[in-house]
Design goal:
75 residues, mainly alpha, 3 helices, elongated
Length: 75
């Protein structure tokens, strides 16, 4: 069981790294000064690919922490 959890943990680590590197930065640049942040894409980010990446990142981060705790406890 421990070997299986260790393999899953390694896969989650790699996936989390790839997903984080695939995301864009949070700096909006000068576009927000002129009101460009209120565009259609700015309001509907949760439905876009970027929004999906954020959700997947949160899920993988929670899974990473849970697996790290479980493996540390010795199960």
């Amino acid at each position: 069981m421990r070997t299986f959890l260790t393999i899953i943990f390694a896969l989650v680590c790699v996936a989390l790294t790839v997903i984080v590197l695939a995301q864009q930065g949070k700096d909006a640049g000068l576009g927000t000064v002129g009101g460009m942040g209120d565009t259609y894409w700015g309001k509907n980010k949760s439905r876009s690919m970027e929004g999906n990446l954020v959700k997947i990142t949160k899920l993988l981060a929670v899974l990473f922490i849970l697996l790290a705790v479980i493996l540390n406890l010795g199960f």
